[in-house]
Amino acid sequence: MRKPRILIVEDELVVARDIRLQLEALGYTVVGEADTGEQAVDLAAQLQPDLVLMDIQLGRGMDGIAAAQAICAERDLPIVFLTAFSADELLERAKLAQPYGYILKPFTERELRTVLDMALYKHQADAKLRELALHNQTILDNLLHGVICFNEQGLITTGNPSAAVMFGYDAHQLPGCNVFELIPDPHRRQDDNCAQFNQLNATDPRSCHHRETQGQRKDGTTFPLNLTISRITLSGQIAYIGIVRDLSERQQSEEKIQHLAFYDELTGLPNRRRLLDRLQLAASACVRSEQHGALIFLDLDHFRQVNESLGPGFGDDLLREVATRLPLCVRENDTVAHFGGDEFMVMLETLGLHSLAAAAHAETVAHKILLELAKPYSLRGHAHVSSASLGIVMFNQHLTLPDELLKMADVAMYQAKAAGRNTVRFFDPAMQALALARTALEKELKRALVRQEFVLHYQLQVNAEGEPIGVEALVRWQHPDRGLVGPAEFIALAEETGLILQLGQWVLRTACKQLVQWSGQTETADLMVAVNVSALQFAQADFVDGVTQALLQSGARAQRLKLELTESMLLHDVPEVIAKMRAIKALGVSFSLDDFGTGYSSLAYLKRLPLDQLKIDQAFVRDLQTNPDDAVISQTIVSLGQHLGMHVIAEGVETAYQHETLRRMGCNAFQGYYFGRPTAPEELLLKFTKITPLALMA
After folding, report:
1. pTM
2. Which residues of 378-397 are buried (b: 16+ CB within 10 A; e: fewer)?
3. DSSP string over 261-313
4. 578: Cβ–Cβ under 8 A, 6 or more apart, which residues?
5. What was the pLDDT predicted at 601?
6. Which of 21, 99, 220, 458 is the most buried (most CB within 10 A)?
């Protein structure tokens, strides 16, 4: 163990020598001796002893008390005074240096040892206390919670940095403030200062006052606060320690959770749950007031095509734009909600006591919504035009069940879609039966896909000489109860529900397999098979891969496969459409533009598309004999196809007149009942050398 190192300050050399001998005999190490105050200050800095044994009365210059003060100002070092004088004035002055001991000359070795050991022990204990205090202060300074200490009058004596920051004060400003200045009215207690805390037990750490209240910053702003106060005794005086915690983040989190529970995160509008709550309240109010209300169910038309044509995320952009426009169409007390997906709901309250006037008001709002949503959108710089289908159901004291109202509004909305979209329809009880039938049909469609109840029939396509050149694959549903069901009854629903993707891929694979079967027979080996592709199917990112896989897995010749596209699917993102078509053309597959003349294709785009065939729609073929305009349109399409180097085929040919007229126009190929109805592949074994219409129909 290291011996304590002591610096002796004594101006009498004989006394200094005796003290040295005594110290060394007691086991101490004397590191140096000084005979003046100035020399003591210098040696204390140089030698850094563990203790200074200082004579108060030094012969010249700085006395021992002044030297002790100078040493302690620079370094924490225990000082023990030596003196032959015991005057009260001298002792009082010596206290200013805060010595660790005081020895009157003469003294014994025992007295010297006792005073020095106690001084060294006390200094070590003080150092540990200072370290502990520093440790505790560091913890307080770095606590996220605020800590304040205040007296019985409520005056703050200390506060950590977190408390100062929390209440908007500088660290030195908080002490001296009254603790009740940190709590605003009416939360501030008006009784006698801290009297309400006097019942706390100063010796029991579990005796605390807990409270959630409001805090007030220096600038007057308030915030939610958690306050815990404990009573303590400090230097014989009652005091209080307050732990304060800012609850702003917790409150914001709770508010966010509450908001997410009742509001849609994407649009910021009330969600389904919130609307149902408000609808229940509105319905109850109708019972009391006999006022009429209205529920408008809104579904965006062709919403699925937004992401498919413009890219991921654009659909969300459109929904947010719609959410900003809808509130512009209603009153402040009306409710606009986002139901999810592309569905919105508008609830109109207090529309009056008269049903006709209320319905007229609801219809006016609905048409205002249609006009607002029909205005062009700019989605990340892309121009976009949209529309919506609206269903309205009125409610009053006799019709107030929210679930029933939602079903009725949904039925009315689908009636608006059935009427051509971008329109408004009121609920009609007869529509309910249609909606139920639609729901049942959707379930049956899903089951039919699982059970593989679909079959392909093929309709013959012939050239100008009546020779078979190909067929069009047409899907049929072999229903277990209803028999063979035509596409008109289920294709539209399959497209609306997205089931067309699974069905379309099945049609493509099945047609390719049929090509392989026919390739083994001389009569059918050269037939082209045309397959219809839906807009939704073509828009899929993996459509090219789907065609490739169908060909590879079946082994069909790509040159025998033709895909029929409609004009509507070519209107969006033309470069992407062209890229897909070229990728498929590279496989050897050809393209036909179906129902040409019924859409809105730009001729400039038509030139750019890698098409092989134009198909004259049956709407122009049907009245060739009676409507000169149809004849002019048909001739124009034929001439356009010839000019662009495309093959032209007419569908819906049912009479000899139609066939002959189109043939004279220069039409290359024909399809229709005049040459044969769609039939199962095994029934399509006819004489293919040269088939006349009459022979085909026999």
Report:
1. 0.48
2. ebeeeebebebbbbbbbbbe
3. HHB-TTT-SB-HHHHHHHHHHHHHHHHHH---EEEEEEEETTTHHHHHHH-TT
4. 608, 609, 610
5. 54
6. 458
Angstrom distance (rounded) from CA 514 to CA 509: 9
* Contact yes or no for 64/56 (Cβ under 8 A): yes
3-state helix, strand, coil in the chain (%, to 5): 45, 25, 30
Closest by CA position to 469, among listed 648, 211, 240: 648
Cα 472 to Cα 564: distance, rounded to the nearest angstrom: 9
Q: Which of 36, 50, 53, 64 is nearest to 2 (CA)?
A: 50
Query: Alpha helix locations (H) across 64-159?
Result: 64-74, 88-95, 109-142
Report which of 460, 456, 455 is spatially closest to residue 685, judged by C-alpha positions: 460
By DSSP bridging, strand 454-463 and strand 343-348 are: unpaired
Q: What is the residue-wise DSSP string for 455-501?
A: EEEEEEEEETTS-EEEEEEEEEEEETTTEEE-GGGTHHHHHHHTTHH
Q: Which two tokens stand for residue 215?
A: 């805090």
Enter the DSSP assignment of 25. Answer: H
Question: Order of strands across the sheet with 156-159?
Answer: 156-159, 146-151, 237-246, 222-234, 208-216
Separation of alpha carbons 657 and 460, rounded Å: 19
What confidence score (pLDDT) does residue 689 get? 42
What is the Cα 177 distance to its own chain's centre?
45
Q: Closest by alpha carbon to 297, among 418, 407, 374?
A: 407
- Which amino acid is residue 683, in one-letter code? E
Q: pLDDT at position 194, please?
A: 52
Q: What is the pLDDT of residue 28?
A: 94
Q: Band the pLDDT of 696: cuts 50, 70, 90.
A: very low
Backbone angles phi, psi at 185, to 5 degrees: -70, 145
Is residue 199 over pLDDT 60?
A: no
Say how far apart CA 245 and CA 144 lie, in whole Å.
8
What phi and psi values does residue 388 have, to the nearest 5 degrees? -145, 155
Q: Which two tokens stand for residue 652?
A: 């819906």
Residue 434 in tokens = 């249609």
Confidence of residue 135 (pLDDT cuts 50, 70, 90): confident
Task: Encode pLDDT of 208-229 as tens digits.
Answer: 677 888 889 988 899 988 888 8
Q: Looking at the DSSP assignment, which residues form a beta bridge with residue 335?
A: 347
Cβ atoms 552, 589 nearer than 8 A? no
Neighbours of 496 (CB within 10 A): 15
Q: Per the structure block, which two tokens stand in for 176?
A: 């001296």
DSSP state of 155: B
DSSP states of 374-437 = HS-EEETTEEE---EEEEEEEEBTTB--HHHHHHHHHHHHHHHHHTTSSSEEE--HHHHHHHHH
d(CA 296, CA 390): 6
Helices 109-142 and 13-25 pack at an angle, to 10 degrees, of 80
- For the cut 60, the answer to whether the pLDDT of residue 432 exceeds it is no
* pLDDT of 581 above 90: yes
Q: Is the peptide bond before 186 cis (omega within 30 degrees of 0)?
A: yes
Which one is predicted more confidently, 533 or 604? 533
- At residue 144, the pLDDT reads 72
Dist CA 176 CA 154 (whole Å): 9
pLDDT of residue 436 exceeding 80: no
Given a contact cutoff of 8 angstroms between Cβ atoms, the answer to whether 538 and 304 are in contact is no
